[in-house]
Design a protein that fits this description.
mainly alpha
Length: 90
């Protein structure tokens, strides 16, 4: 028996795995450098990676369901997405 996985699901999962791997590598680098300034630089770099991965994964998911939802729901999703991005940015 074969399990069929949608391409959007695979892409979203791979983006999250990449994001988590980057976080783990950054944590090991912080431990290796043992320097607060370098740790802060790494941590602030991660603050850029998280929202980018979030936006990419959400975009992939929306493209995957674009043919299954109405235009009104699609607009509401983008409004909510915009509020999340605005809240994170502020």
């Amino acid at each position: 028996m074969f399990i069929f996985l949608e391409k959007a699901i695979i892409a979203m999962a791979l983006l999250r795995i990449l994001s988590g791997s980057i976080d783990i590598i950054a944590a090991f680098l912080m431990l290796r450098f043992n320097d607060i300034e370098k740790a802060l630089i790494l941590n602030s770099s991660l603050a850029l990676v998280g929202p980018i991965v979030f936006m990419l994964a959400t975009t992939v998911g929306l493209i995957g369901i674009a043919d299954k939802i109405s235009l009104a729901k699609f607009i509401w999703i983008f409004i909510g997405f915009g509020f999340i991005v605005y809240g994170v940015k502020s």
